[in-house]
Amino acid sequence: MLCSQPIVWKTRTIQNNQQFYIEEQSSIDLYQNEVVTPFETISMENIFDVSFKEFSNTSGLLYLHTNRGVKTYMVKESPSTWMETFHKCK
Length: 90
Fold this sequence. Notes:
- By secondary structure, the protein is mainly beta.
- The protein has 1 helix and 7 strands; from the N terminus they run E-E-E-E-E-E-E-H.
- A hairpin with a 3-residue loop joins strand 2 (18-30) and strand 3 (34-36).
- It starts with a strand and ends with a helix.
């Protein structure tokens, strides 16, 4: 593994007529030939670019531009190191 970027996502559940949000954490792992997320594995040849949009001081969105559309991941830490490593591999 070349680099790892922590990500978070929220799952909404309803129990006893009450709504709850559960925040879960994992990472996006960058390898020489692929990117592994908690949801799928994407070959490097199918990723065209990565970008980042910060929307507060504590979080932002990391975008993977792929041949199957743009994949969006919420991050709480700057992904600049991960993005630099990605561009070196590409």
